[in-house]
Design a protein that fits this description.
This is Undecaprenyl/decaprenyl-phosphate alpha-N-acetylglucosaminyl 1-phosphate transferase. Keywords: Cell membrane, Membrane, Transferase, Transmembrane, Transmembrane helix. By secondary structure, the chain is mostly helical. It contains 13 helices and four strands. The strands form two sheets. A two-stranded antiparallel ribbon has the order 1-2. It has a two-stranded antiparallel ribbon with strand order 3-4. α1 packs parallel to α7.
Amino acid sequence: MEKQNIILAASAAFVIALVISYLLTPYAKKLAYKIGAIDIPKDNRRVHKKPMPRLGGIAIYSAFVITAIFMAVLNPNIHFNSEFKGILIGVTIIVMIGIVDDVKQISAKYKLAAQIVAALIVVYSGVTIDFINFPLVKSESGYVFLKALKIPMTVFWIVGITNTVNLIDGLDGLAAGVSAIASLSLAAVAYNIGQYNVAILLAILAGASSGFLPYNFNPAQIFMGDTGSLAIGFLLATISVEGVIKKAATIAVAIPVLALGVPIFDTTFAIIRRLLNGRPIMEADKGHLHHRLLDHGFSQKQTVVTLYAISMVLGGSAVVVSNATTRIAAYLVIASISLLVLFGALRMGLMKKVEERKAKV
């Protein structure tokens, strides 16, 4: 396909997914009330104060699947291979467990088990991280091939990214907007390196997330719930492996890390914060970046828009790194962004102990 046609196809896919998601969200809201998928605030970590339906992820998932199939049928030049089929099966498992959790609040260990099963299905379909690039390790090819470690490394990546998106879903419109920005950033990278089908898939995910936003932006009418945040995280993780980490020529793993910088860095600092303060890693607290911004006097909307802006900067950095003509240039961009992130984290106190850390569930 010509590049101009790819841009048109991706743009059409984005709009179609956006419209479908927008149209389906009110029905997801009705279904949430019908089956009891309601978020009732029980502790002081929750920003919202009234019960909210939390099944919006069904609309996002449905929009993604319907649009992807429609694009494949409509345009014979778009081929979604066995890897995509594995991703589709995996995300369906994630959505099913998410629906159950949004209704009944199941144990974290069962959710983790389902995520591992879904990740293994994707790995079996051929989606694996085969190599990584270390600046200080020399090899003839420039890469360190994982060999036997590629399966556990891929599963770790998929499960980790799946949960980082879930962890930032703490304010109206935050997870959906950040995910849409990350999807568009990765779509630009995929387009630049010739992964056109992947670029279209990411445009679809961005559209599905964006179509949900009018109902989810402050003041929200519905939450995406675990159904949505886990599904979006899973799709971002798996599609980034298939289309970016496998194919990018320079610092492959760093590209999706930058594009998904807000959830990844926020989760990383949360883990460091809890370890430094002798708290369990999985214990919820009010020390996340969005909590800190609220503590500094930002409103919900100001906080979310600020995090959108940060996501855009990080996403733009991912595109710059993917276009870097030399590794030194890529390293310089990554080092600069890393220093800025560390400085910002220290200024915001992301690694300091916070009051009332435990979630009283």
